[in-house]
Amino acid sequence: MADLSKEYASALFSLACEKGIINEIKADIGDVHMVIKENPEYLDVLSSPALTLSNRLSLIDEAFGEKNEYVISFLKLLCESRNIATLSECINEFFLLITALENRTVAKIYYAFQLTDAQKEKLIKKLKSITNKEIDPIYIEDKDLIGGIKIELDGKVLDGSLSSRLNNIKGVIG
């Protein structure tokens, strides 16, 4: 399903670039994402075989009628092709394309103990120098880490956790 989501997201992104309306599409897709997050049952309704396709498409018009026509068409296409359940994945993929366009990247930073503002600032500065991109950090508390941090960045994992260091020492000792 990830490949399918990437294809749909890429198509919407390409259309937004071609029409010069990236910011408008970005805002509208963001609004759709918030609605879906706040009302996850909405996707179940749009997937329901109990409703006719025309009823499901009407629900999209009612909920998002004021959004950009391409966003509405995108939602309807997902519904018609019975892929509406992938909407959240499609939106996530779309935003990854936007961050790449804006020379930004998301860094998921897992920590055992809360980082100070000074530590966060130093870490972000270091990540910027490594990637030459603006960093959008997401801080996630991970009770499984004994100490240190683990970072997911551009498809790579930078593991500076204490458990990783102990495993490395264990491997050297044999």
Low-confidence segments = none
Gyration radius from CA atoms, angstroms: 20 Å
Could you give the order of strands across the largest sheet? 2-1-3-4
Q: Element order, helices and strands? A: HHHHHHEHEEEH
- The helical percent reads 55-70%
Number of helices: 8
Number of strands: 4
The end-to-end span amounts to 41 Å
Largest sheet features: 4 strands, mixed
**Silhouette:** elongated
Summary keywords:
174 residues; alpha+beta; 4-stranded mixed beta sheet; 8 helices; elongated
Q: How would you describe the overall organization of this protein?
A:
Helix 4 runs antiparallel to helix 5 (69-80). Helix content is 62%, strand content 16%. It has 174 residues and is α+β, with helices and mostly antiparallel strands. The longest helix is centred in the first third of the chain and has 18 residues, at 2-19. It contains eight helices and four strands, in the order H-H-H-H-H-H-E-H-E-E-E-H. The chain has a four-stranded mixed beta sheet, with helices on both faces. It has helices spanning 2-19, 22-38, 41-47, 53-64, 69-80, 87-101, 117-131, 162-173, and strands at residues 104-111, 134-141, 148-153, 156-161. The model has no long low-confidence stretch (mean pLDDT 90). The radius of gyration is 20 Å and the shape is elongated. It starts with a helix and ends with a helix.
